[in-house]
Amino acid sequence: MPKNGQTQQFNKAAFQAAVEKHLTTTYATTDETASTRSWYLAMGKALAEISTGNLLATEKNLAEQKARSVNYLSLEFLIGRLTGNNLISMGLYENVAEAMEEMGQNLTDLLEEERDPALGNGGLGRLAACFMDSLAAQEYPAVGYGLHYEYGLFRQSFVDGRQVEAPDAWRGIEGYPWEVLRPELSQQVSLYGHVEGYTDENGVECRRWVPAMSVEGVAWDLPIVGYDNKSVYPLRLWECRSNAPFNLARFNDGDYVGAQYSALEAGNVTKVLYPNDNHDQGKALRLMQQYFHCACSVADILRRHEAAGNTIESLSKLETIQLNDTHPTIAIPELMRILLDEYKLGWEKAWEISSKTFAYTNHTLLPEALETWSEALIHQMLPRHMEIIFEINHRFMKQVEQTWPSNNEVKRKLSIIQEGPQRMVRMANLCVVSTYAVNGVAALHSELVKRDLFPEFNEIFPGRLTNVTNGVTPRRWIKYCNPGLSALISEKVGNDWPANLEKIAGLEKFADDAAFQKRYMAVKKENKQRLADWVEENMGIELDTDAIFDIQIKRLHEYKRQHLNLLNILALYHRLLNDPTFDMHPRVFFFGAKAAPGYALAKDIIFAINKVAEKVNNDPRLGGKLKVVFIPDYRVSLAEILFPAADVSEQISTAGKEASGTGNMKFAMNGALTIGTMDGANVEMREEVGDENIFIFGLLVDEVQKLKQEGYDPYRYYHADSLLRAALDLLETDEFTPGNPGQLAAIRHNLLEGGDPYLVLADFADYVKTQEKIDAEYRDQKTWARKAILNTALMSKFSSDRSIRDYANNIWKLEPVSL
Ligand code: Z57
Fold this sequence. Notes:
This protein is α/β, with parallel strands linked by helices. Helix content is 47%, strand content 15%. Residues 244-260 have low confidence and may be disordered. Strands 5-8-9-2-1-10-11-15-16 form a nine-stranded mixed sheet. The chain has a six-stranded parallel sheet with strand order 19-18-17-20-21-22, with helices on both faces. Strands 12-14-13 form a three-stranded antiparallel sheet. Helix 22 (562-578) packs across helix 29, helix 22 (562-578) packs across helix 31 (760-778) and helix 28 (714-720) packs across helix 29. The protein has three domains: 1-60 and 92-115, no CATH class; 66-81 and 121-469 and 804-812, Rossmann fold (3-Layer(aba) Sandwich); 474-699 and 759-794, Rossmann fold (3-Layer(aba) Sandwich). Strand 20 (648-651), helix 25 and strand 21 form a beta-alpha-beta unit. It contains 33 helices and 22 strands. The chain starts with 11 loop residues before the first helix and ends in a 7-residue tail after the last helix. Bound molecules: (1S)-1,5-anhydro-1-(4-bromo-2,5-dihydroxyphenyl)-D-glucitol (Z57). (1S)-1,5-anhydro-1-(4-bromo-2,5-dihydroxyphenyl)-D-glucitol binds next to helix 6.
C-alpha cells in the first residue's frame, strides 16, 4: 500500500466532470452562474462519490472476512467540518486544489463554505469523533452509531454581552454533501403499550411487548475516511420519521393516551440535540431519543451479523458494543429483550451473550451528570425493558447478598433501583452490572471511579473497572489545523508522524537549537496573526501578536472555573490601576464557551466576562497591556484557529472534577504551555513533559476533599487576601456596567454566600502567583521556545491512535483488517 501519499486513484478530468455534473444535475446551476456555495457543494458531492464507493467496499470486505468489529454508540459525534479533513485522509488535497483552480475556484474559499456539523456538546462528542478517525486510520473494523439531529448545538451570539441562542440548521437547505441516505437500512421502533404473558407452541411461558405505536428510523451514513489507507467506515446517524406510522388501531383502543403522546408532540424525536454538557435533565423526549438511537443501532448490528451468515450465539465473538457514557444504556435491555422474546434464548444464555457484548465508558463523577430515569417513565414508554431491568437487578441483588450477607446498606448503595418517593433507575449501576469492562478516561479519573464512585463494584467485579486515557487525532489537531508546524515537524522527523505520533519525539533534540527555536516561534507568530486577523475582522478588536495569547476554550461550567480566570483578570486590572510598581507583559485573555441555555450562573459568567472585556479593551489607562476577547459561537472550526495560536492553555478545573479534558492535549501539541491543576489528564501530561515544562498550581484531589470535610469557609480567604477582596468587590461596583451596579454580583454572591462549591477562592492565590511566573518566563523567549518545543515533542501519548489501541488490545480484543 502506498504510504504518505495519494491512496485514492485520482483522475482529474473525471473528477472535474463529476463536479460539473453535480453543479448542473444536483444543484441546478451552471459553471458561469454558480455561487461559491454551489461549487463547494458540487465538489463535496463529487468527493463523497469516491468515499461512498470505498465505504461499500469496506463493508463487503469486513462481512466476507467475518471480522470482529466495534460498534461505538454515542448520542453525540462532534465531527467538525469534513471536507478538508477527508481530502487530507484521502491524500487528495493538492490534486483537488489543482482541479478546482482549473475550474476557477480557490479550494480554501470553498472549504470556508462548509458549516460545522455540531452534533455534540463538547468533550464527549468530540472524543467520539477523534475515536472514529483513529479507528479508520488504524483499520480497526468499526461502525459509529449516532443520531441525525435536524438541529445541532445552538448557535451563540451576544446581545449586550448576554448569550442568545439560535437554532443550528447545519444541513442548510441543500443537505450536507457528505451524507448518504441508506433507505434499505430503515428500522421500525416501537414505543409505549403493555406487556403480556402467553404460552408458546411448546408450552413454555413467555412474555412479549405489545407496543402502542411505532416510528421509523432512517439511516444516513457519513464517511469516516481512513488516513493514508483505503478503508472508509460509516458513521451511521438515525433520523426519526414519526409523522406517518402511528398505529391507529392502538391509538383508538385507548391504550395510548395523553402523557404518552406528550413526548412526541414536541416534534420529531431527532429534531434537536439536547444542549447540556455534564448535566442530566431527565426529559421524556430525551429518553425517547436514547431508546430510538439504541433500538435502531442494535437492530442494525444484528442485521449485519446475520447478513454475514453468523448465528446469534456468536454475537459476542464478532461484535462488541461500546457505550459512550450512560446515554445509550437502554441498548442493554433492548438486546436482552430481543434475545429473550424474539430468539427465545432463555435468561442464562441471553445474559451471557449480552454481558460479553457491552462495555461502558464513564466520563464524569459529577453527581448532577449521573443519569437516573424514573421507573414510572421507563415503565410507560418501554414496559418490557422495565421488567428486564428489574430482573437484572433481582439477580444482581442475590449476588450482593452472597458477597455481603444481610447488609442492607450495601444493597441500597449498589442497587440499580434507587428507592425514594419515586423510584429511579441508576443507569451507571445498570452499566457496571451488565458489561464486561468499565473504563474511566484518564488515570486519575479511573482511580477515583474505583475509589470514590464504585468501590464495592470494584470488589464484587474484580478487574472490570479499568482505564483508557483519552487522546486526540493528530490529523485534525496538528496536520490540518497547523500546516506551518506540520511542515517544520516533517522536515525534522519525516512525514509519517501523523499516523505514528511516537515520531514527534524526534523533535526533542532540537529544543535547544537556536535556529529551530526561531522557526518554531515564527510559526507560532503566524498562527497568532491568523487569529488576530479573525478577531479584527469579526469583532473589530485590534490585537498585538507580541502579547501573550492566553486561551480558555471549553464549555462554560462552574467546575471548569472560567470565573477563576476572570478573578485574575480583575486582579490585574486592579493592580495596573492602583499599584505603580506593578508591571506585566501584554496579555490577551481569550475565552470561547457556550453555556447550557438553562444554566443561569454560567450565563452570568459569560455576561461578566463580556462586560469586563468591553471596559478593559477600551481603557487607555491600561496602556494596551490587558485585553479580553470572548469569541462568540465557539465551535470546532474556530478551535482549529485557536489551538495553534495559543501561548498559554488554561486547564484550571477543581481537582477531581474534570474527568480528562482533551483540549489540554490539543494546546500542548501545538506548543502552548499549560497552566493547570492536578486534574484529569493534566496529571499525565505533566508526567510526559516534566514539571519544568508545565505550570501546575492549586489543591490536590485529597486536599480538596479534606478541606470540604473540615468545613470550607470562603470568607476566610476573602478576609485574608486583599487582592482577592479587591477583585471580588469590583463585581459589586458599576465599574464594568456604568450606571448599573450589582449586575455582576451573582458571581460574587455564589462564591461568598453560596459557599464556593468549586473552591475558586481557595485556589486563587496560587493561581495568581503561577500566572506571575508565566509572565516572567515569557520574557525569556529562548527558554519559552524550548519549553514549547518540548511540549510538542512529548505529547505522543495523547494521540487518539494510542487510546484506540488501548481499547482494542485491553478491552475489545480487536485486530486491524486492511482493505
Ligand atoms: C462531556 O463532555 C464529558 C463528560 C460527560 O459526562 C458529559 Br455528559 C459530557 C467530558 C468530560 O467532562 C471531559 O473531562 C472529558 O475529557 C470528555 O468528556 C471526554 O472523555
